[in-house]
Amino acid sequence: MINILTAAEITSKKHLNYINKPLSPIAALVMLTLSFSAQSAPELMRAKALDLQHLNDKNRIVDDVEFPVSEYLVSEKLDGIRAYWNGTQLTTKSGKQIHAPHWFIKNLPTIALDGELWLQRGKFQALTQIVMDHVPNEEAWRSVKYMVFDLPASDLPFEQRYNTLVKLIETHSTVPNNVLYLVEHKRINEISILTQWLDIIVNNHGEGLMLQHINNYYVSGRTNKLLKLKQHQDAEAIIIAYEKGNGKYKGLMGSVWVKTANDKTFKIGTGFTEQQRKNPPPVGTTIQFRYNGYTERGIPRFARFSRVRLSPDT
C-alpha cells in the first residue's frame, strides 16, 4: 500500500505612529495563547520540528548521527485547520466545536479521525472565514475537504494504521456528499529526494512535509517520531507599533514593531499585501511570522509576515 518515491518521480513533478506600554513575557504569552471558549481539548499527537539545516545528502543529521529516513512515511504538510472527528462531532485542536453543515458530517464514519479541513494551497485565509463561522455558509463548505491522516483510537503502529485508513477512505469514496480524502504518504529512501520534494512543494505555494515513523503509536503530545520539515521556522508575536512607509510605500504602513512571548522586540516589513499596508492589523493583534534562524542577539532572522492569528486554532 506504500509507494516509494524515486528521484525520477520528484524531478518530473523611522517613525513610530504609536507604541503600547512594554508587554511582560507573561502578558505576551497570555495574549498569544488566548482562545475561544472550548470543550476539553482532544489528546492529539503533535509534531516536532526537523531542522532542514541539520540534514545532508549522506542520510545524516547534526553531529553526524544517522537519520533513518526510509523508516518514515512522508506526506505533504497541508495549510489547513486541524480537525478532530470523535465519531459524532468535529472539533479544533483546542476543543472548539466546528460548526460544519449537517450534510458535511452526517455520513462520516463513527470512528475517531484526525486530519485537516482544507481548500487548496494558498487558500488558508478563505478557509478560516468558512470554518470559524458559527453559522455555516452551506455553499462555501462545498469546497472544503476533510483530509484525513490518522486513526487516533487505533492501537496499531502507524504503517498498519495508514493501510487501514487507505481502505476506509476507498470504501467511503462512494458515499453521497463524500468529504473524506486521504493524505497520501510515501516512503523515501534518501534525504536528497526528501529535500527535492520539499523544494517542489514550497515552490508551488505549499507548506512543507510531515514524516511519521512506521512504528509510531498514536500518543498525545509531541513526539520525535512525528516530524515536520519546512524551509523556514514559524512563530507568533504581538503588534505593538507601526512605522510609516517610504518610497513606494509612502502614505502606507511600512513595517510593524512586534514583541514576542520571550520579550524580544523587532520590526517586520515584508510579507504584507498592499491592502494590508493600507489597513494594517490593529495594535495588539497576534500575528504569525516566518524566519530563518536567529541573530547573535536572539532576534529572528529574515522575519516576514505570514498571517493574522485569530485564535490558536488558526
TrEMBL record:
Coiled-coil boundaries: none
GO molecular function, one term: ATP binding
Protein keywords: DNA damage, DNA repair, DNA replication, Ligase
One biological process term in Gene Ontology: DNA recombination
Residues annotated as domain ATP-dependent DNA ligase family profile: 102-230
Keyword Nuclease: no
Cofactor: a divalent metal cation
The keyword Amino-acid biosynthesis is annotated on this UniProt entry: no
Domain of life: Bacteria
Domain DNA ligase OB-like positions: 244-309
Catalytically driven reaction(s): ATP + (deoxyribonucleotide)n-3'-hydroxyl + 5'-phospho-(deoxyribonucleotide)m = (deoxyribonucleotide)n+m + AMP + diphosphate
Name assigned to this protein: DNA ligase
Lineage, uppermost ranks: Bacteria, Pseudomonadati, Pseudomonadota, Gammaproteobacteria, Vibrionales
